[in-house]
Amino acid sequence: MSVESAAAEYKEFRDFLAKACGIVLGDNKQYLVASRLKKLMSEEKIDNLGHLISKLQQFSNRALKESVVDAMTTNETLWFRDSHPFNIMKERLLPELKSSNRPIRIWSAACSSGQEPYSISMMTEEFSKSNPGALKQSVEIVATDLSRSMLECCKDAEYDSLSLGRGLSQERLKQFFEPGSGGVWRVKKEISRRVRFQPLNLMDSYASLGKFDIIFCRNVLIYFSAELKTDIFRRLHGSLRPGGYLILGASESLVGSTDLFDMVQCRPGIVYRSK
């Protein structure tokens, strides 16, 4: 295959991925595409990227499209990733919200393999135990991701030793997990019952989710175009209750959307309050 043909096929695949889920690949990420899709293409008996693109263009191949997007999105994360957002929630946001007379609603957007929403629930439990009677209302955590297969795994609330070693202390393992069969550990019911998993592409409507007090949308928008980021920020703003909080990843910022949020310095860490 000529260099020109390979470049054209890669461009077609980039266009497909951007349209399907918003992810914008760089000019020289062919190695990433090859490594992420190698297993899938072998299983589907697809010889090359051109053959894959041809199949993706067929209307009937919805399952293949979902599988490709699944393979190209990052499906592994950490417990209590970056720590600051969870500490801010426990020490500042929950104390502020506890006086409301309605359920506190938290959205974990692009929740991947489930560590973030379960970490949020664990931190809520820690706050409740250290402040008896302070949280008179319930806390509802909605966790979304575009990968349906990943969400099915999340609902099982089971993790192996390798996954548990990524950011989870032994103290929290003992407190919030119970041993399951086959060497896995299961999140305890008092933690998992707060979390509801639901498929959602961030490019689609959020209307069915309702309004939230806190939205975690971390380490996903870095893969999107500037135009799509701006659109998503406006829709996230629309999903927050007045004065609600948006929490982004450590390397992310509200470029182009500062009219919607006030930056709140928490030292350490930053959150954004809806105007």
Describe, in plain words, how this protein is organized in 3D.
The protein has 275 residues and is of the alpha/beta class. The chain has helices at 3-21, 30-43, 49-56, 62-72, 84-97, 115-130, 148-156, 161-164, 170-176, 189-192, 226-238, and strands at 104-108, 139-145, 158-159, 177-179, 185-187, 195-199, 212-216, 240-247, 261-265, 270-274. The protein is 43% helix and 17% strand. The strands form two sheets. The protein has a seven-stranded mixed sheet, sandwiched between helices. It has a three-stranded antiparallel sheet with strand order 3-5-4. Helix 1 (3-21) packs parallel to helix 3 (49-56), helix 2 packs across helix 4 (62-72) and helix 5 crosses helix 6. The longest helix is centred in the N-terminal third of the chain and has 19 residues, at 3-21. The model has no long low-confidence stretch (mean pLDDT 92).
Order of helices and strands: HHHHHEHEHEHHEEHEEHEEE
Determine the strand fraction and express it as a percent band. 15-25%
Stretches with pLDDT under 50, minimum 5 residues:
none
In which order are the strands of the major sheet placed? 6-2-1-7-8-10-9
Q: What is the mean pLDDT?
A: 92
> Strand pairing plus helix content: what structural class?
alpha/beta
> Could you give the distance between the termini?
54 Å
Shape: globular
Helical run tally: 11
> What does the main sheet amount to?
7 strands, mixed
Q: Any idea what the radius of gyration is? A: 20 Å
The number of strands is 10
Q: What share of the residues lie within helices?
A: 40-55%
